[in-house]
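Hey Z.,

So I finally got round to the alpha-D-psicofuranose thing we talked about over coffee. Here's the setup:
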Amino acid sequence: MTDIDAVKRALREQRIETPSWAYGNSGTRFKVFPQPGVPRNAYEKLEDAAVVHRFTGVAPSVALHIPWDRVDDYADLRRHAESLGISIGAINPNVFQENEYRLGSVCNPDPAVRRKAIDHILECIQIAEVTGSNILSLWFADGTNYPGQDDFIARQDRLAEALREVYDRMPDGMRMLLEYKLFEPAFYHTDIPDWGTSYAHCLALGERAQVLVDTGHHAPGTNIEFIVAVLLRVGRLGGFHFNSRFYADDDLMVGAADPFQLFRIMLEIVKAGAVNSSVAFMLDQCHNIEPKIPALIRSVLNVQEATAKALLVDLDALRQAQENGDVLGANEVLMDAYHTDVRPLLASLREEMGIDPDPLAAYRRSGYAEKIIQERQGGTQAGWGA
Ligand code: PSV
Ligand code: MN
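And the result:
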């Protein structure tokens, strides 16, 4: 039997972080399609993020990417966030968009380049301290394109050395989330291609180093929920970068192509009692052809819907069926929950929270899209700078 009040409580307290870069212009390798009303700076990105939170009630923080979100005064940016009723979340250093990083950042054979990359990450720790963030989220574009180009192990050693320096400089209470990615932008090898490599580095560093699972960073057919379960078991699942992937790292709306996969991932979270834990639920998406704010609202709703369905799984019945070796029965328990329409449950939760039961319709009615198109004239639109 499921306790609906407990399900609602877990959903009410769930937190989903949106990424600042999703509010700016973005595109493919071939074209960035600008959209009207796009923020021109980090302050305006926060304003859009606050709107996503206003209509969903569960997205009160926004991740920054530095230097995309560089400002003169981070304390002032923090005050701006707080005045909007949100906070600044994970700080993402960017060590992949400067000429020096052609052969990598912290794994680069040139010590001067490694120093530059480490210094930038250390600067991001300071930014995190000022903005009140407790997550340093690291992704390295490092790897090689050709056999023989560089030495795998020398690069791992450089990586370990850099991570150690960074880890030792993190204040108490800050976590390092180490993201892996199968391929791209390097194609012959990637220095942190999988969860195992990330985990090995985290283990060597200490408890506050944890693995970040970006759902888009796996080979087709990878059982991501298994990875999630294994990392939860050893206490090293730091968080997610949610998006929907079809062929490669396409950064589409989470739960768009495969809501069942998202449900299966959330089920492992539910089973570990981690819906309301330190596991960070962050989106990492770009909205190239669809309007950005409603796409982010849709994405938050998709995560909520998958979580709600996972919370509805009758875990006692599931365990019972598993222990009895009842293969079909166990599967049926899962599918029963998955096929439940949880939209009425979420609508009633939102009413209890004092927000509109239909966040997308409420956003469309609000006139915010028209307002920013009207107001954000002139200046340079924010973009990912690729
Ligand atoms: C890389 O593909 C990634 O997933 C990393 O998290 C970056 O920080 C983010 O996308 C934005 O480029
Ligand atoms: Mn990511």
